[in-house]
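Ticket opened by: R.M.
Priority: normal
Category: complex prediction / small molecule

The reporter submitted a protein together with zinc ion and asked that the result be attached to this ticket for the collaborator who will pick it up next week. Submitted input follows.
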Amino acid sequence: MYVVEMHKCQNCGFPLEMRLFSVSSNIGPGKINCVKCGEAANTGRMEWADMSSSNKSRFWLITLLYIFMLGLLTGNFIDQAYQLWNKDPVIVNLRYEAMPFQIFAVVGGIVAVLLQIYRIRDSARRSRRNSHKLTMSEFMLGIQWNLQFKCLVFLLAIWTVATIKNAAS
Ligand SMILES: [Zn+2]
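Result attached by the on-call engineer:
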């Protein structure tokens, strides 16, 4: 189901980023120091201030896609977790008509918008400082890098908790 593309450091091959569906909104510093070898690596990204209006339109188009994707995934993951938690005999995929699906699809969509707005502000902050050094904690826990992957891990964690609870009794 997922098409995954690895974006690697050009010097040492360390996987700097994983992009699902090979889609990225392309916001961020154009170069970062690789967290493994320390050399400057191209990211293929651009800061908000440097984007042309067509780049910005593309950013909002990708954001629309994120709203849809994160809404669908969040609604479905949480609804399945909800069914597992309640020990429903059959776990139904994509229960569009169910209340938990609908509520959390909206929540997922709103989170996608907030994340993208935060990234524009973060980008503006980086541009003002005119320098950017990536730290390991920012790489692991920040929301600029591997954001799609981190969202997916977060949803999987909720689903896993419900599965364990379901199996435990
Ligand atoms: Zn490297």
